[in-house]
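Run folding on both entries below.
>entry_1
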Amino acid sequence: MKNTKKIISLVLAICMLASLAISASASDLPSGNMVGESGGTGTSSVTLSSTADGSIGGDPAATKMSVTVPTVLPIAVGTDGTVSTATDAKIVNNSFGAVKVNSVSIEAAQGWSLAAFGDKATLAHEKVNSNKFGFSLCLGDGEKKLTDSKNASKQTLLTDAIEGCFMSGVGDTSANSIGIAYDAIVTPVSEAVTNTAIASVLFIIAWDAV
């Protein structure tokens, strides 16, 4: 009787080990669609996840925008009214994706007024220290945009992206930046000024998306 119990226990142990082995071997099989015959097909879908660190299973995140816009657009006016501006001003796209300058506006600082841009002689009749200036701006190889005499405080120079406003992603270093060509005319001043803020130019940057 004792031997019979031992045999039964041994058989049960062997069955248990066999079931574990079968379970383990089944778990080792690759998951997915099975192809069961020669010439059969299997389909794999390709999925995309945008993540913060580019890893599978990482935190969801969209492409990061990183665009550098000049902090200052300096203007120097000589004693004869001749104006000089920076020749190396530019906007640089450091993002992976393409971007565009969607609009541009200019707002006069307190105590200053916008005037129509043109020849400096157009301001010759203005009183000294009247603090008026005209401004022009051109992005890339696009059209030059000028201030007018319609609004002395704030004006929109660009309402939509036009030629010269588009930049590729940072991977294309030949097209990921655009130059800013600008000019001004300024009324005379009775005392020397240094780095006085006379206006702010607002560049609205957006993805160049479909």
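>entry_2
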Amino acid sequence: MQIQLCEFCLKSGMLCNKCKTKVESGEVSTEYIEVAKILLGWENQFQFLQKVRLDNVLEAGGFLVLVVGKGDSAKFNAAPKLTRDLGDQFNKRVLVIESGVKDRQFLEDLFATQHIVTINIIWLPDGSTETRVVLQGRGNRRLSKKRLQALVNVAKTVRNMDLRVEYAY
């Protein structure tokens, strides 16, 4: 697995000078260290982890957000037991998002269980932008307001993206 810290530093618990500066500067969070340790331990059980890149780990909106390399989120989605076990260890839901993708792909990963009808960018008078996401809202497939707010917080934390989520009827 490709990680931002030395594999030896993670396994031993003692950080070298290079890794220590990354932690002190805030480039690597304590959540990142904990998740990377767990995933390194599971590499033998889940073989695909050997080819995955873990860029960042964030806590936002009650989710544990894993930011992985481009194309790696499909590998995590193919092994739901891994994300479920990881979520059980942190008592949070795990959300896997790819880094380096366009906004549309990011939003499709974020609202994976929903069908996105359209995405619009709204230019506000103060010069800022807001992204409007319209989801298909038939039946009981709608997300709760609490879950929607949590996903909006994730988008703000990960991409600094202001979202307005609506349902089409």
